[in-house]
Amino acid sequence: MTAPPSSGFAPRYREVIGERGRLCVGIDPHAELLEEWGLPVSIDGLSRFADICVEALGPVAAVIKPQVAFFEVFGSGGFAVLEKVIRGAQAAGALVLADAKRGDIGSTMQAYATAWLGDASPLCSDAVTVSPYLGFGSLAPAVEAARATERGVFVLARTSNPEGARIQLADADGRAVGQTVVDAAAVENADGSATVGLVVGATRAHGLDLGALQGPILSPGLGAQGATPADLAEVFADADTAWLLPASSRGVLRSGPAIGELRSACERTRDEVESALR
User: Fold this and answer.
1) Cα-atom radius of gyration of the chain, to the nearest Å?
2) Percentage of the chain surpassing pLDDT 90?
3) Given 12, 84, 101, 204, which residue is catalytic?
4) CA-to-CA separations, 135 to 139, 184, 206, in angstroms, rounded
5) Where's the Orotidine 5'-phosphate decarboxylase domain (predicted)?
6) Is residue 3 part of a domain?
7) How far apart are CA 13 and CA 15, in angstroms?
8) In whole angstroms, what is the distance from residue 213 CA to residue 240 CA?
């Protein structure tokens, strides 16, 4: 029998989803969006973009997902802004999922885990995305760090881009590679902690059996990538949608820079998701 989720990431995730609904909003400050908002493509523009997003989204979004690459491109100044986003969003009550997609082996993976999940790190988030394509076992330092600090990792299983299928659906001893990731995550979650979530795109049928996961499923692709809230129930018909976390970035962010309009776009998308999954 599966242990009840008395500790770990599960209670925190369920609490915020219960209060705010199932939606993850990405903060993706790419150059084109900065320009659309009338902001310079500079540290000053990035900082203003980040401040608006945190003020608008922090109090209403269940999960905020900063895309690390768009901060990293600005160097050390960009990371300073990212640290501000993480702290600000958490202070407003949202969980922060750092979309870093880290993956390596041994001490290097341990360093990534410490950077994104360690209590003392200025980048410490509630969860981080990781890549399993050096082998699921290579993620052990991140899984162990997440378990120790009651945080989470979201492992790429079936991504929203069409190129992913050649690897993720390839045969591995009679199972798709992506399914081996799902099955390994389910083993980690057997204690009820929901430490290991998955990334499974909403843009097409995924071909995975998600029934045993017992953890969150980040589902990118809403809005700009073409998926709609109505698609979710069909794409995830065999999954426990109580764990589903649909994600939208540009679909919400294009409503900025006015704080009220940005917040309304988040709330409207969340309500559409909840209605579709009810």
Assistant:
1) 18
2) 81
3) 101
4) 8, 11, 20
5) 22-265
6) no
7) 5
8) 9
Per the structure block, which two tokens stand in for 98?
């750092």
Angle, helix 140-149 to helix 106-117, in steps of 10 degrees = 30
Helical (H) or strand (E) element with 275: helix 259-277
Q: Is residue 80 part of a domain?
A: yes
User: Which residue type, as a one-letter code, is found at position 254?
Assistant: R
Q: Which residue has the tokens 């809403």?
A: 222
2 lies in a domain?
no
Strands (E), 92-234: 95-102, 127-130, 152-158, 171-172, 175-176, 196-200, 217-222
What distances in angstroms separate CA 96 from CA 57, 165, 268, 274, one per listed residue? 12, 28, 20, 20
- Which of 121-125, 149-153, 162-166, 214-218 bottoms out in mean pLDDT, i.e. has the lowest? 162-166
3-state SS, residue 221: strand
Is 101 considered catalytic here? yes
Which domain range does residue 232 map to? 9-273
Q: What is the mean pLDDT of residues 244-270?
A: 97
- H helix runs in 58-139, sequence order: 68-72, 76-91, 106-117
Q: Pick the closest to residue 215 from 152, 273, 150 (CA basis).
A: 152
- φ/ψ of 176, rounded to 5, equals -65, 145
Where residue 225 sits, what CATH number does that domain have?
3.20.20.70
pLDDT digits (tens, 9 = 90+) for 130-139: 999 999 999 9
Beta bridge partners of 199: 156, 218
Rounded to an integer, what distance in angstroms lies between the CA atom of residue 124 and that of residue 121?
5
Residue 119 forms part of a structural domain: yes
pTM of the predicted model over 0.90: yes
**The total number of structural domains that make up the chain:** 1
Write out pLDDT tens, residues 46-82.
999 999 999 999 999 999 999 999 999 999 999 999 9
